Amino acid sequence: LSCGKQGADIVFALDASYSIWPVHFQKQLQFVVNVVEQFPIGAKQSDFHVAIVTYSENITVHFNLRDFIHKHQLKKAVMRITQYSPGGTYTHKALEYIRRQMFTVRNGGRTYSDKIVVVITDGLSQDPKATRTEAARAHYEGIQIFAIGVGAGVDKHELEMIASSPPRNHVFTVDNYSILNSIKRKVARETCKVPIRRDKPRSDIDPSIVYSNRKSKQSKTLHLYPAPLMNPTQRERIKKIYYLITTKTVLIPKGATYRGDKQGQTNGLSRLYRPQCVTGTYLIDPERIKECGGKPADVYFLLDSSSSIWQPDFKKELSFVEHVMDLFNTENSNTKIALVTFSDKVQPVISLGSYNKSKVNEVLSRPEIYLTGGETDTAKAIKYVRENGFQGPLARKGVAQIMVVLTDGQSRDYNSTVRESRLTHQAGIYVFAIGIGKDADYKELKQIASDPDINFVFRVDVFDALDSIKDILVFKTCEGEFSKIYLLPENSDYLLLPTRLQP
């Protein structure tokens, strides 16, 4: 099996919980050997490196990515693995450990290789909410995950939450361990097809330090500013330092050091704070962002269907909507999803609450949802949804009203788009703007989106990368207090400098 010029670092996560019989555990090992047999294992950049962990209540690393560059030695090491430390199926612990540790340079991770995880399980995880969160974090960091479910006890929905998108390429199920090897070629083939260095979601950040002073009419915020590390000692001790000057609520993740928060009025940043170190402090409870799907919201997707969009790319827009919807709780009417397409005319496709999830998926797959062609009249689409989408018997009062605008270029009338966007913001509707490709106008995206830009503007280089932002988009939309929370990178040091205007 030839996988091209780009190698991959693959971590197999094998279920070793109490539900796994020893004979079935051996079949997992044999499956890994049979899959590895099809890969080019070696020391070249284009070769594959393999690591294995087993998980139950505890995580056991059997070997790292750097340990074997000869295939025959690797296969022998796999078959020597024994099952021990049984317990529950703590899938979230495995995902978290792999994300944090297995792809590090120290453990053999390579900078320019794809990061791939293959998870095998025979049942529901011990903590589904935590599993969903850890999978989302891994997706956000560009790790491709394949999920393999064995037997009748697996939860297909959870497998899809664990796996990368689309599920049809990343989720595999078999009836029992005896036929696990029947999918070895398909797993190897799909693993080989992982796109090279997928784009991570990104929002542009103003790289200047801005803070309030006595003459300011309104406080300004520096969202994230990576501070340079000037000497070797600092570079060895700290991965990154971020300055955050803000009036907003901030979540400090695990592994971070919080320093601050002394208010002051000065022209010099060095005199703006007096540091005090509180390691491991959380300013808000992280549980508030772990489960995002159940918050009530009315969400309208506005999809660009103008002449600049090719039909395959339009299908990727529809697929993105479908995958985002899968992360929301739409079954009990907490979240309602609606959809329009737009070019120089607006085409309603799905109205709020008119269908359940399965019916929406059916509608999205219909061939009659097609490209209308024409110019990109973004203003008309925003106005239509504001005036019609959140009105009528299906619209709800007291829930968040959200627009998600996807476009690949400039609108036909910039001034009209800015005007309609401002009216929408004034109506209390939150607007996310997603620009796709090099022709998307970032200045216009910022005008379309709600404030702050870092929470509401996304850009991806190609349509294929849309799915890489689905998890973080759901995190942003479901919290409710959209502009009041920043989710910061893990394992960094922070200087938090709250700013307030002086009377």
TrEMBL record:
Superkingdom in the source lineage: Eukaryota
CDD domains reported for this sequence: vWFA_subfamily_ECM
One family name in Pfam for this protein: VWA
Keywords for the protein's UniProt record, in alphabetical order: Glycoprotein, Repeat, Secreted, Signal
Record's subcellular location: Secreted
Gene3D superfamilies assigned to the protein according to its UniProt record, in alphabetical order: von Willebrand factor, type A domain
Record-linked InterPro entries: ECM_Assembly_Org (IPR050525), VWF_A (IPR002035), vWFA_dom_sf (IPR036465)
Main location: secreted
VWFA domain mapped to chain residues: 9-187, 298-473
SUPFAM superfamilies: vWA-like
GO cellular component: extracellular region
Protein name: VWFA domain-containing protein
